[in-house]
């Protein structure tokens, strides 16, 4: 950078290895006999000629540019014949002063978030919302929300900045937190309200003055009260449910790679049903960002998650109602590095940018800021010289191009820059430009490799907004570590966890934080990562993200401590309005503490042992309706003794009262057939219509194991010891699945069962040129069942030898499928996979003796046929509870929009089933054994695995997992993994 802050002029140096005549590099390494003296003399002569030509061009260009600058900005002794108006000149000078103030205060504003210099005049949103009706969801019928003052008594306050305050009272009114203390009374609340009026003289709020009769008192009995969660990366309201193409407004794909002028505000859909769902999860503020297809995707918007009667997007804005003196109203800008812009724009024939080199150049072309500075310098000089007639000496208005407005604001310090960057080299590139061009970066988003750059990010005061375990889905995400949050936090980086809704359902944002705590990040820092840290990094840490007096009344009451598995809000308040209010359920007992670490620990993580014993087991979840304790003895990979009367053999591992469950099974996903789901070179591929018509595909032919693949390693280290995977297809028929050992290092030792089940898909996802309608899908399926070809696996399906696994979500299609099988192939053993709408026809499924494989169990309404999704934690019976009450056997698997990348969280996912509200009228109770069954023996039974897989049985191959407690819940860790002769102690996830 030059001393003025502009880029220095760089002199081009001609590469000495470049052949000037033909543009090709001269090869001096081949040993060819070249007359180097003659060649060098000739090149030198040509360089001098070219340099002379270039010099002439540079001199001429410089002279012309200087002349233009003189014409535009040099004070003239006499007024111009066509000058700007006095008002235009005054407007420009005012802009210049604002620019100077912004630049002077940029670093301070970045540090303090732009908090008002005087005491807050209350919550500006609450003042403005008084003119409309705020709505709350109530069984799909909206009713006015109440903003009556509330006194929360006997709370355990998690204040969002690392403190936990027992037996604390919190009062709210007028959209803010009025008073915090102990033993507060209604009179205290009323007096605090009066002081609020008197101190701030808010006459416009006089009509809202309240009395003791207006105050609601809520006894929390020790439940946790926290600030509302802040999600600093979401696409809700610009990608509305149920996922129609017409509502997909996250990326503008019709322009250039840089579109800073675009505004998320102009695409916000205030009727998005996800707003209510997300609020029910305790998220009260979200930063809505454009997608990451463009280098500069446009301007974001921070919103509160509540709706008004006017259905106005403006009224959702965090800055709605703000006036002078209410603090800084920040703008937000989204940039993206790496793969995404390359993938969108780098297509044949060489569209720009194709590579990271092109990405970088796309960031650095702005010039208008220098033109503005020149205008301001000239205008200031004119004002001093000509006073009131200065405008007569200017021919051009203040340059203010709308296209570059947000970029200029970035350099002026009025924008909080959010950058989509995964890799170390991309983040370092942005830090380089940060210094070269003089702007701040609020946070790197996704930032998979940020933990490898932790010290530098801390030094630069750049935050990260990351996932806990959503990873491995593309090259940029491949070096993810579940310990990233811990490493970054300990280095001094301010860490935020975000949803990227709908990649991850923002309703479950707290689950991201809870998983981070499980993997070792400090629990207080973890909770700050979804409250005060993101609040600060969106410039609002002085008004949201913590429980403190005079902060916005964004409050969540939790059914259990928020970092426990399945925690969900019972009450949500936004701007003082009660948006969610559920009946208080009984306070749940604290989870049992983990027992001490297994002994002994192997000197190497993995060993092959001919015989070994696991003793002192508190619970052995062996199979359905059988929970034992005692000892397991394994010899030559086979369980030879099970229970309390076993004679030890080989090494004896003491589990110290821990728990043993069967090895988990990941079924009906891509495990073993893909490593990085978005990189075709690491996958088995996707079947075409021609492949299906030519004959069936068998997953056993595409299976790959070993080779240090991170996905399989993360699976078996999490206790997932068996995979059942089918070929991938975008049509009706996928093929035949295979069951295999995830710990196998060679194919010959991997296969447990070569042909497991025939897999099909019915619905929108299966529409292709062979069956381009749902009706044709049923027609083709009818033919395959009625008259299968002699070599078709459908013969084994019809006879009941192989299960039929049908991925289907719409309950209408489930009913049709059940009827088709009943009339055409009554012996078929049906597994309904996906099954979002299965709860609607639970009785029909039970009558048909079919099983259900929820994939995933925590669904999203992200397509029309998944609109039947029942989300967890809303005071309603869950899908699992309804199915269990009907007598349906249920299994689950975890899958995301990126495939099987979160397989290591399978046991956590099973745990969600035990944490529903249990409000179903039949009195069905879901217990730990149900959770274990859903990922072990229920899968084995449904998919026809009869070799003991998914169970712990005498005389069968050993495949089990030992934990230090639980087995359901966070904070319990795997102590031992046993897969036949292979034994691993204390497996460590990367």
TrEMBL record:
Gene3D superfamilies: Metal-dependent hydrolases. GO terms for molecular function: hydrolase activity, acting on carbon-nitrogen (but not peptide) bonds. The chain crosses the membrane at residues 50-73. The keyword Transmembrane helix applies. InterPro entries: Amidohydro-rel, Metal-dep_hydrolase_composite, Metal_Hydrolase, Metallo-dep_Hydrolase. Residues 28-38 have a biased composition (Low complexity). Residues 449-562 form the Amidohydrolase-related domain. Keywords: Membrane, Transmembrane, Transmembrane helix. Pfam families: Amidohydro_1 (PF01979). Residues 1-38 are annotated as: Disordered. The keyword Transmembrane helix applies. This is Amidohydrolase-related domain-containing protein. It comes from Physocladia obscura. The lineage of its organism: Eukaryota, Fungi, Fungi incertae sedis, Chytridiomycota, Chytridiomycota incertae sedis.
